[in-house]
Write a structure and sequence with these properties.
Largest sheet: 8 strands, mixed
CATH superfamily of one domain: Nucleotide cyclase, GGDEF domain
CATH architecture of one domain: 2-Layer Sandwich
Radius of gyration: 61 Å
Structural class: alpha+beta
Number of strands: 18
Shape: rod-shaped
Oligomer: single chain
Distance between the termini: 47 Å
CATH topology of one domain: Alpha-Beta Plaits
Strand content: 15-25%
CATH class of one domain: Alpha Beta
């Protein structure tokens, strides 16, 4: 058998694998839970900040729309689109008063009216006045400049041009829908001595209708910075307090991300992820809102994308906010390191304990394996050492008890084989021979072998020599009987009784008995020649029905055969001369085709009323070796 992996190695590998699997599972589960709690905590802050930005934008957009709707109906705007060269001062003054008070959030009842001819514009109003213009149906734009605004201010940013190819169709579509729309566009801003900044301007386009004809004659375009007050406050707050996890906010327009808080590398990396999500989002009209995680430059971010111009015929724009998850990743990395360290320590400790336990278990098992091999090799005196009182110790104790029982059984079998025939002993041990008192009728051949003149021969011999002579004779005769597949039934003084066909039948039991008888004569002659002795035997063989079974008392049994043919074999043995074999008629009938025998005068034998036909056996031909045949239970 191929030698496999040691039990100790298997146990250590199994335990090590389980510890590693449990450690990995715990780290993963704990990390997932921490990530979930961390993300939920910061998502609430994130969504709160984003909500403030969106609410601020929605509020401002509402104000823009309301103001633009009011201004689009003003006679000043209508006159500009109708191409009037001169507009009276009162109409112009009223237009700018309404516009100025609206963007400041002031009420006419609380503040003095701002007139165009009185002093310069206040600084706060100058910074918020933005850019306002009108566009006619042909796409021509006319800038509406506040009388008090410095020349050139408001012209840094060009409005969306409707004179380009394809823009005419968008303008017509916009005017045909006859409703306000908000769109965004890039612009540049540069103060003296400062770097030029790319910014986003928010523009509200409002159709203007001729009050007389009801036709759309153009649009009022009002633009202001795309950055809300909430975004400005958030930027200042994060800059002043240097928050560890700042919220990055900006706007996505025409494939470009505009924001003062995004650096170029991070913005470019996140832009690809955002555009991919937008491309995969469901199409159609309607507000789109997305929240997902993305990576940029090895850092994770929670991204919020909100569509600002979902129904615009002009330029789609998106509010983008990103919350860094670097702290989360750092905490998770620390968790993994600590978890791995703890798991490694548990692994080392577990393997050490496992090695000790496996050694304490494998050593006794190896002793048991060696003990099994010793028992298999026939060393029934081998015992294993009992080193503990646990289950392994109990197993070792049971093994020793089993070895002792096997030794006793082997001893019993050996003794049984010495006091009875080996075949009978094997049948008794295996259980194939019924130990109940009684027997069954079987067709058998019985052989008796007796030493001629034994009494006179041993009269003057010492008992020890008599026993030595008999042992040598019986041993040789027993070997002959067994070689011919017979069973030695008993020894009676100098007489041997053998039976053929009782336990097993080979189909030619009479022939086996006849050959055994002639072989016994030959063997005895061989011993005489070798030892210089003159011991002669006579043999009688009879065949027929007999009762075979265990007979005797309840506590002492002997397997034997009884019957008239047994008695006949004994009488024929008595009638045989020195070195002669006498057989009955049934035995002769079974071997006559292959045997040479001399008829004898009918014998008057003791116990038999009639004379018995007998034959003196001279020779028997060779037959097939019975060992090649399958023995069967003899027929009744």
């Amino acid at each position: 058998m191929t030698k496999g992996m040691r039990f100790q190695t298997k146990l250590m590998l199994t335990l090590g694998g389980m510890i590693i699997a449990v450690t990995v599972a715990l780290i993963w589960a704990t990390g997932a839970k921490v990530r979930q709690a961390y993300t939920r905590q910061f998502s609430e802050k994130f969504e709160s900040l984003v909500g403030q930005i969106e609410a601020s934008r929605a509020e401002r957009s509402g104000d823009f729309l309301t103001l633009s709707a009011t201004l689009a109906k003003h006679p000043f705007v209508i006159a500009k689109l109708q191409g009037k060269e001169s507009i009276d001062e009162k109409t112009t003054d009223d237009f700018w008063r309404i516009y100025s008070e609206s963007i400041r959030g002031d009420s006419a009842s609380r503040e003095p009216k701002i007139r165009t001819g009185r002093g310069p514009l206040p600084p706060d109003l100058l910074s918020r006045i933005g850019r306002i213009s009108v566009v006619d149906v042909e796409g021509e734009e006319t800038l509406l400049q506040h009388p008090k605004m410095p020349k050139g201010r408001g012209q840094q940013m060009k409005q969306i041009s409707f004179k380009k190819r394809g823009s005419q169709e968008r303008l017509k579509q916009f005017l045909s829908e006859n409703k306000q729309q908000t769109f965004f566009q890039p612009a540049t801003h540069q103060r003296p001595g400062e770097k030029k900044l790319e910014l986003i301007r928010e523009t509200v386009a409002t159709p203007v209708t001729d009050p007389d004809s009801g036709e759309v004659i153009g649009a009022l375009m009002r633009s202001a910075s795309g950055q809300t007050e909430a975004e400005r406050f958030l930027q200042r707050y994060q800059s002043e307090f240097e928050t560890g996890t700042p919220l990055l906010a900006g706007m996505l327009l025409d494939g470009e991300l505009y924001s003062p808080s995004f650096d170029e590398a991070t913005g470019d990396a996140l832009l690809s992820a955002i555009e991919e999500k937008i491309a995969l989002s469901p199409g159609g009209k309607g507000h789109q809102h997305m929240q997902f995680e993305a990576s940029a430059n090895g850092s994770a971010y929670l991204i919020h994308v909100d569509e600002l111009t979902s129904e615009s015929a002009l330029r789609p724009a998106y509010q983008v906010a990103a919350f860094p998850l670097a702290q989360l990743e750092a905490d998770l990395a620390e968790l993994r390191i600590r978890g791995s360290g703890i798991g490694g320590g548990v692994l080392v400790l577990g393997l050490a304990i496992c090695w000790i336990l496996a050694r304490n278990l494998s050593t006794p098992l190896q002793d048991l394996a060696r003990g099994t091999e010793e028992i298999r090799a026939g060393n029934l005196d081998h015992r294993v050492h009992i080193s503990s009182g646990d289950e392994v110790g109990q197993l070792a104790l049971s093994f020793n008890e089993m070895a002792e029982e096997l030794k006793q059984k082997a001893l019993y079998r050996e003794l049984l084989g010495k006091v009875s025939d080996e075949s009978v002993a094997q049948a008794l041990v295996s259980g194939t021979l019924d130990l109940e008192l009684g027997g069954e009728i079987k067709e058998v051949s019985v052989l008796f072998c007796d030493i001629r003149g034994f009494t006179s021969m041993t009269e003057n011999m010492p008992p020890t020599e008599v026993i030595e002579m008999l042992n040598e004779h019986m041993t040789a005769m027993t070997e002959v009987v067994r070689s011919c597949y017979g069973v030695v039934d008993k020894f009676v003084g100098d007489e041997i009784m053998a039976v053929f066909g009782a336990l097993k039948s080979y189909g030619d039991d009479a022939g086996l008995a006849a050959r055994c008888a002639l072989e016994m004569v030959r063997k005895r002659a061989e011993l005489n020649e070798a030892n210089g002795t003159e011991i002669h035997i006579g043999i009688g063989v009879a065949t027929g029905e007999a009762v075979a079974g265990c007979m005797g008392s309840n506590d002492r049994l002997n397997y034997t055969v009884l019957g008239a043919r047994v008695n006949l074999a004994a009488r024929l043995c008595s009638a045989a001369g020195a070195m002669e074999v006498v057989i009955d008629d049934k035995t002769f009938a079974s071997v006559q085709d292959e045997a040479t025998a001399t008829p004898m005068e009918n014998l008057a034998l003791k116990g038999f009323a009639n004379a018995v036909a007998a034959y003196r056996l001279d020779a028997v031909g060779e037959r097939e070796d019975p060992s090649s045949l399958n023995p069967v239970a003899s027929s009744t």
